[in-house]
Amino acid sequence: MGGYQLHDAVDLPGWEHQSIWGWDEGTGSFYAQLWRNGSTSDAPEIWLTGALKPYPWPGCIALEIVEHTQADTLAVVQAMGIAHPDPTLRTADEVMQRAEELRKLGDSGYIRGQHHALAWTQGLAEFTPGTRTEWRRDRWPTPELRFPPSSGQVFKQLSPRPSGTARNEQD
């Protein structure tokens, strides 16, 4: 990354009045400074700086904000303006094809994480990829689920899939 400074608001409910994030050319890292609404402090309550720990991607800062504020993951990426404006979903077959392609790329932690996330979307994982909370293998997340930002959840478990059935596009 690099090349120019970036500063933008963090429009996260409860933190949106003063909070900012951006790219700091000096440290070569993204950063975030968050103040709770109503704070009169000059110093942010949460200060994520690349001087102490590098944040090479906006998603790194988003995950740290989620951990520090306990806010909903989707709410944070939307508050930072990095959520895709028109997301598309892969079919179950496309997801499984991509998972198979990843297996051939090696065994790095990054590749294992991608594979696990894809397997989770198909009901094939025992824990969620983000929060690592327990997840029954016979349940799966769907894009139709909606949660208020205060819930702290992006997905929740659904009713069990009938035994012997595969997930398809109608699920």
From TrEMBL:
Domain of life: Bacteria
Biased composition (Polar residues): 150-171
Region: Disordered, residue numbers: 141-171
The name this protein goes by in its record: Uncharacterized protein
Origin species: Amycolatopsis taiwanensis
